[in-house]
Amino acid sequence: MDKPTTDQVWAWLDEVPDPEIPVISLVDLGIIRGVEWQGDTLEIAVTPTYSGCPATSVINLDIVTALGAKGVDKVRLRQQIAPPWTTDWLSDKGREKLEKYGIAPPQAAGGPARCPQCGGEDLERVSQFGSTPCKASWRCRTCLEPFDYFKCI
Amino acid sequence: MTHDEALFQFLLRMGDNTLILGHRVSEWCGHSPVLEEDIALANTALDLIGQTQFWLGLAGEVEGQGRSADDLAFHRDAWDFRNLLLVELPNGDFGQTLMRQFLFDAYQSVLLGRLISSSDERVAAIAAKASKEVAYHVERSADTVVGLGDGTEESHARMQAALDYLWPYVGEMFTGDEVDAAMADTGIAPDPASLQEDFNVLISRVMGEATLSVPNAKYSHKGGRSGVMHTEHLGHLLTSMQWLQRAYPGAAW
Predict the structure, then answer these.
(1) Pairwise CB contact (< 8 Å): A129 & B43
(2) Does B55 touch chain A (CB under 8 A)?
(3) Phi, psi of A37 (to 5 degrees)
(4) ipTM of the complex
(5) Does the distance separating the beta carbons of A48 and B50 come in below 8 Å?
(6) What is the pLDDT of residues B130-163, one digit of tens each?
(7) 3-state helix/strand/coil string of A63-86
(8) Could you tell me if A16 and A79 lie in one domain?
(9) Using CB atoms within 10 A of its CB, is residue B50 exposed (0-12), middle (13-18) or buried (19+)?
């Protein structure tokens, strides 16, 4: 087969869901830092969200599997830690999807802007840590529901 | 000692601190007083273990003997570890665990802040990554120290006892040796003594809010960073942490 263009590869990677938050793609999450052909090998630069995120190995496997299904067999993954991942790299599309899914997207102010369930703005933090390394636990005082907040880093 | 030998020792110190503390904190998994604290401790442990993979991974690369981060973590014995004595101490009660965490987080946040401008770009990259996570750790551990210190009579007494017990292990953080001198000479890492002022400012502020008194005692326990004299606790921790790889070398899943 002909080598797919890097734009095509980006589009394919935008269909690979994050294993922990499947409504957003790896591209939405901002962890794909580069796509480059080196001879007949496709090199993908991936950055971890948090150092110890257990999803990292699953993500690597998912990338190789997804590209393999498109006929790209020679894939090399390169871990890139500088510059460090920041939630500024979340796509606007990804932020919207997170909120619809019930996870408040990160805000520069350091806390959620509104409850992803009812839109209420009277919120309290339960814990800086949540169900995955990238999230914190919050609660809405209007609808009384707890929700995840995607931490800003 | 060659430059790379000194750099290897420095990287072991960084990686062993995060590894041993990460393992200690993970011992709380499923045992914390409330669910949110359990999750917070497990997340903190996870960050620390993740940072260990970077530090020990680079250590193995610098050493050049083909040892991976896992090899260094699971196939060294107590005398080859280079962590601060503070991080190998048993958890004690929840308050003591959080006091130890705060003392370490305060030190680590100051140190990583300097390492971000390390002359070695690999060290700078790991520091930049880790410092974002440590900013969350220190915020939480400081809040908890304040909450429990300025809490009930019982929690205050426990936090003061924890501080009194742990304080003699703080001095080791700021005591340099020839490894530190070699790192400082080449701009890779700061002289440990130069971190003390910023550390003290942070400690004074938080202990003040927590209504706790920092002990005056000058004596400090040493021997972890050099590996010369670990406490008896490290060996017990390693028997648990390394058991699987010792019993089934190279086991993978």
Answers:
(1) yes
(2) no
(3) -85, 130
(4) 0.90
(5) yes
(6) 999 999 999 999 999 999 999 999 999 999 999 9
(7) HHHHHHHCCCCCEEEEECCCCCCC
(8) yes
(9) buried
CA distance A14 to chain B (A): 25
Q: How confident is the model at residue A109 (pLDDT cuts 50, 70, 90)?
A: confident
* A71 and A113, same domain (yes or no): no
Same structural domain, A19 and A75? yes
Among A42, A60, A87, residue at a domain's last position: A87
Q: Would an 8 Å CB–CB cutoff place A4 in contact with chain B?
A: no
Q: Chain A: give the shortest CA distance to residue B151, in Å.
A: 18
Distance from CA of B217 to the nearest CA of A (A): 34
**What's chain B look like in SS3?**
CCHHHHHHHHHHHHHHHHHHHHHHHHCCCCCCCCHHHHHHHHHHHHHHHHHHHHHHHHHHHHHCCCCCHHHHHHCCCHHHCCCCHHHHCCCCCHHHHHHHHHHHHHHHHHHHHHHCCCCCHHHHHHHHHHHHHHHHHHHHHHHHHHHHHCCCHHHHHHHHHHHHHHHHHCHHHHCCCHHHHHHHHCCCCCCHHHHHHHHHHHHHHHHHHCCCCCCCCCCCCCCCCCCCCCCHHHHHHHHHHCHHHHHCCCCCC
pLDDT per residue as tens digits for the range B167-193? 999 999 999 999 999 999 999 999 999
A126 to chain B: nearest residue by CA?
B36
Question: Residue A140 falls within a domain, yes or no?
Answer: yes
